[in-house]
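Hello Y.,

Per our agreement to keep a running log of every chain we model this quarter, I'm adding this entry. I've kept the format consistent with earlier entries: sequence first, then predicted structure.
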Amino acid sequence: MMALCLLSAVVVGIEVNWFAQNITATSPPLALTIINHVVSVIFTVELSMKIYVLQLRFFKVDISWHILDVVVVSTGLVELVIDLVNLMNTCENCSESGLDLGILRALRIARAVRLARLARLVQYIRELRRLIISVLATLKSVFWTIVLLALIIYTFAVIFQQAVNDYEQSVLRSNATPSSETEKFFPGLLRTAMTLLQTATGGLSWIEVESALSNISTLLVVTFLLYFSFIYFAVLNVVTGVFCSTAIENASQDAEAQIDEHVRKSKDYSDRLVKVFEKMDTDNTGTISILEFEEMWEDPALQALLSTLGISQSKAWKLFEIMDEDDNGEINADEFVSTCFKLQGSAQRVDTERIYAGLKRLGAAIEDIGGYLQDILQGLANVKSSVETRRPIQLIPRSGAAPTPSKSASMASASAALRKATTMK
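Predicted structure for the entry above:
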């Protein structure tokens, strides 16, 4: 459909250019007419299929785009119907082969509505959508920029026009003729404001205006140079910076663009990691052992590559231990890529908080284990004293309470953590 949108716009341009070269013509060439109607039929079929698939959702989802499609298709269908009626009712006494000339002119103007179909390109080209969003975001800044320039130009226009009026009055009192350059650039307040705007935007050379003011007063020349310097070096540069900042900020807030960019970067990062893994897998087994990992880790080129990927350099065996998720002494491509994704960049706040919470749970479990060890030692002491004195054995629970299921679970998790730590060592 993107190609059809472009074709429709190109055909409209060719038709307008043909009428410009054949100003007395009343109808376009047959080939252009056929192409226009074929494109209209294709757009109609597309819209009909969209309505059939979406049904009621057609009036709820992307309603602005659907309204645009309906307007463009309706215009094309009306044009097609009128052309068919024109062919069937041709007569010699009617201009434009049986149709009123004004109607066909209106149709040719309405045909330009098809150019609105170019707006559909925004959905297909991400860079174009980003540019349009940036431009639309700067409209508010454009309005206030115009207001600011209008205030500055109006203020200086009043100053210059008042000085020129005083100059002309003094010239007339002396029966002399005012300078033609002065009358050209400063005939009235509006023209004076236009002169100042043209000098600020490059439409008029400031040297010409300075030459006209030099005939009046040197002070006016200095004032004009101050005005031009202030507008050119201060106001316009600040406005440009504001426009750029606003455009960049709003372009970064485009959700679809952010998702596409994130997917693209993740795919590129994953492909580069796979290439690194293949380079480290010297025996082409699909897995990397600790010996292969340590051997390739000493390669400066590999370390530089990992640094560019955001993976900090550390001891090989530590990194290998982290990557070996299933503890089989080898790492495959999936383990290597997933771990590198996790190790990318510096630690975030959520990572430190998760570690801190884990340490708190481990500390509480160790504290419970210490308490239960004290209970066991106390029980053993009671056993020893009972054996020595031949008294019944009494086990005294810690704090006078039996262990709860939650504490037993804590003891089990802590024991598992201690066994894992011992195994890692």
